[in-house]
Amino acid sequence: MPDDDQTPPDDDDKFRPDAIAARIDSIGEETDADRVAREEESKLLARKREQKKTALETAASKRLAKIGERQVKRPTAIAALAVPEPGTLLDRLAGGQKWIRKNQVAVGVASGLAVAAIAGGMGWAYWQDQVAAQASFLFSQGIADEHGHVSSKAEGSDDDTTSRDLYPTFATATERHDAALAKYRTVESKFPGTGAAILARLAEATLLLDAGDAKGALRAYADVEASPLAKADRAVRGRAVEGQGFADEFLARTDEEHRSQHLDDALARYKAMQAIEIDDFKNLGIYHEARVRAAKGDKPKAIELLKDLSARLGESSRGTSYLKFVVEDQLRDLDPSALPPKPPKGAAGPGGLDMNDPRIQKLLREYQDSHPESPAPARPGAPPPIPRPGPGPGSKP
User: Fold this and answer.
1) Where are the strands (E) in the chain, listed by range?
2) Cα angle: 172, vertex 364, 204; to 5 degrees
3) C-alpha–C-alpha distance, residues 243 and 230, integer Å
């Protein structure tokens, strides 16, 4: 017979009070198997957490690396112009007002300086305008004196009252010369650097050459050529270069020892004159070169230049009739067979005019005086012409 302790309990015994109480007491107790299972489960959970943490760190490192490799997106203009939130804008305005009140003295000084700068700029511009007006007025007086009348008659004794209203009358040509020269030099001394002063220096050079001071004229013409106005205005530059050539030719006639050198200098000036991008100066430079070539004894070259220039002028429709006339006159003197004979004195020329008539010559001189921007060449066999001072195209005295 089996032992009573080894007999399996009956199902009814499970529900006995003492069996139920025993099971309740055993609930809070942990068996060895439960403890081992719990520890293994804790270790497994720890390993899973560690693996998950390592995976997150690796992913984060990869994301950071990619961010460093990507180009940073800069704020766009639209984002920069984005209107701030009302609260932020009001806060900034309030802060600005507080700063202004705190730095009221500094703000007042800055505002005063700004107003003073604006007022000073306007005052400077006004003063510059006044200076330019005064310089131009005085320069125009010098031009009037240079073109003044020379007469020993009492003023108002002849019928040319209109002309006398425009230009003053002088007893001698020397008085006229001195009066104009004094006006020009006053403009240069009182208003240095202005356009009127530069043109006054150009006019002074003309008067000096008229008076025979070729070296003084050379210096004056060189000053004009180096001026800002000559660099900006090709006509002024052309006048200055041509004037230096005239002065060199004058020295060639008065300094026989260095005649050849002076003529070479004049030739260089006239070649430079041809490089100026104005047809009148190019044609006139060729004519002057031909004259100097003839003076140096290079007659064939002079004839060649004059023939080419005559053909060039014949194709031009601009006002070159006077230049064409003197070119043909010079060409006939050098090579009578180059052109048909000149009509005898008194015979009607083109248009029924006798170009040798003193009255026609007077009209030509008067035209040249009233149109200083049109350079006039020298008469064949005569000394080089002296350019009349006057503003170039687009410039103001």
Assistant:
1) 149-150, 169-170
2) 45
3) 13
Calpha distance 291→80 (Å, rounded): 73
Query: Does residue 149 sit in helix, strand or coil?
Result: strand
* DSSP code string of 161-227: HHHHHHS-EESSHHHHHHHHHHHHHHHHHHSTTSHHHHHHHHHHHHHHHHTT-HHHHHHHHHHHHTS
Contacts of 280 (CB under 8 A, 6+ apart): 318, 320, 374, 375
Cα–Cα nearest to 293, from 278, 308, 280: 308
Closest CA to 221 of 199, 254, 190, 191: 199
Q: Is the dihedral of CA 346, 360, 150, 195 positive or negative?
A: negative
Encode pLDDT of 244-256 as tens digits: 999 999 999 999 9
Phi and psi (nearest 5°) for 150? -115, 115
Could you tell me which of 230, 315, 332 has the C-alpha nearest to residue 279? 315
Q: Is residue 380 part of a domain?
A: no
Write out the two tokens for 231: 């660099």
Residue 83 lies in a domain: no
Bridge partners (DSSP) of residue 149 are: 169
Amino acid (one-letter) located at 350: P
Looking up residue 252, the CATH number of its domain turns out to be 1.25.40.10
206 within some domain? yes
Are residues 363 and 226 in contact, defined by beta-carbon separation less than 8 angstroms?
no
What does pTM read for this prediction? 0.56
Is the model's pLDDT at 335 over the cut of 70?
yes
Q: How far is Cα 86 from Cα 89, in angstroms, rounded to an integer?
A: 5
Q: Inform me whether the pLDDT recorded for 328 exceeds 90.
A: no
305 is in which domain, residue-wise?
A: 127-150+165-370
Assess contact for 119 and 127: CB atoms under 8 A.
no
Q: Considering its fold, how many domains does the chain have in total?
A: 1
Give domain status of residue 384, yes or no. no
